[in-house]
Write a structure and sequence with these properties.
alpha/beta, oxidoreductase, single chain, ER, 7-stranded mixed β-sheet, 6-stranded parallel β-sheet
């Protein structure tokens, strides 16, 4: 069950602040780096100046942020490149995970490319001097931030946004902790479902009226759970034409999967031979599948999925996984007349739609728990061992 936030005290700041005005304060920032099997610290907390308000933008007091990271490979060790989130941080082995871990940096080198925090929810603290009076947003509004290119690090108590169009006001009935799950992970899952929906519609038009499209979702991590919930909504008018199977990688995943109606479950027990796992999956799916959704797939899982995929079938993965595995699997996919497609993060319009669907109850968010930001290191360690069900959200307490 979600851990809800207690009501916040009103924020006493002027409606319009001067962009050149300094608060003369420091705020806390966290950096979460590659969790290391050697046990060295991977969470760093330090003080940074509160940023000045941009003339055409706003300053946000961050209250909640998704507790995870998603590194984008970059030669720069200073770029802020978190783009999304998952439910666990794991090595390239078959564990319940949305994202595989990257290679660890040399000991003693800060991997600053792993700044996290693209899933943030907070409160508007002040506006810039050039923001018009007739704007739709107001100081004190609870908002989330669309993950646009150049988005600032969100694991900080205050961040600034240079264009108000990237801020989405949260409905009154949506908690900040739920809102914090939407901008990256849920949005990526939504765009994946949209891509799968287009592919399924095209297949059904080509086939006879009695045909059925089969979808395999690998894992029960945060992204997979979002995808299942979103797919349940968007495929609701095609229930007799589409079947869904969940491949779960651990025992408690079976319990999570059981909450979905009309969904088959197959357990990928890594103690079994690969041939047995493929046969087990084909039995659960009722034959070869047309679509596989596996956000953080490993080489072994991708090979297994392709064995279960029909000719013309598609495997949807995140871009970083595609970049890593396509060189190895592209020829095999071509020989099997299959496709491995990278999914883009999603659009601002999709995020606005997602907010309304979650607020209305049409799409139910996965389970999540809120932890104080001070417990970030413990949270990351739990995520590494898949000890947190659903999503983990870090909370920044209001600054004094």
């Amino acid at each position: 069950m979600p851990v809800e936030l207690e009501p916040m005290a009103p924020i006493a700041h002027k409606t319009i602040s001067h962009s050149g005005e300094k608060m003369n304060k420091l705020c806390r920032q966290l950096s979460i780096e590659s969790p290391s099997v050697t046990g060295r610290d991977c969470v760093f907390s330090f003080d940074v100046p509160v940023p000045d308000v941009p003339a055409h933008g706003a300053r946000i007091r961050v209250m909640c942020a998704g507790a995870c990271y998603h590194p984008r490979r970059s030669p720069s060790l200073t770029s802020l490149t978190s783009v999304s989130s998952g439910s666990s941080l794991a090595a390239d082995i078959s564990v319940e995970s949305d994202y595989p871990a990257v290679s660890l940096p040399h000991h003693g080198v800060r991997d600053a490319a792993l700044f996290p925090g693209y899933e943030v929810a907070g409160v508007i603290e002040s506006f810039g001097t050039e923001v018009p009076e007739d704007r739709e947003l107001a100081v004190g509004d609870r908002v989330i931030l669309y993950p646009y290119d150049g988005i600032p690090n969100g694991y900080v108590e205050y961040l600034v946004v240079h264009d108000l169009k990237y801020l989405i006001k949260l409905p009154d009935n949506m908690s900040l902790s739920v809102g914090a799950m939407l901008p990256a992970g849920a949005l990526l899952a939504m765009n994946t479902v949209f891509s799968a929906h287009e592919h399924v519609q095209a297949l059904l038009k080509e086939r006879d009226e009695n045909s059925v499209c089969k979808i395999l979702v690998v894992g029960t991590g945060g992204l997979a759970l979002w995808a299942l919930r979103i797919a349940s909504y968007y495929f609701s008018n095609m229930r007799d034409k589409v079947t869904t199977t969940i491949a779960t990688l651990k025992d408690d995943g079976l319990l999570i999967a059981q909450e979905f109606e009309r969904v088959n479950v197959v357990q990928w027990n890594e103690d079994l031979y690969e041939k047995q796992l493929i046969e087990r999956t084909m039995d659960a799916c009722g034959g070869q599948v047309d679509v596989v959704i596996d956000f953080g797939t490993t080489s072994r899982n991708l090979h297994r999925s392709m064995q279960c995929l029909s000719k013309g079938g598609v495997v949807f993965v995140i871009k970083e996984v595609a970049d890593r595995l396509l060189p190895k699997f592209s020829r095999r996919a071509e020989e099997r007349q299959q496709s491995i497609k990278a999914v883009e993060p999603g659009t601002l319009e999709q995020l606005q739609e997602l907010v309304q669907l979650v607020a209305s109850g049409d799409i139910e968010p996965p389970p999540h728990t809120v932890y104080p930001a001070e417990e970030a290191l413990d949270v990351v360690q739990k995520l590494c061992h898949s000890e947190i069900q659903g999503r983990a959200i870090l909370r920044f307490y209001p600054a004094d």
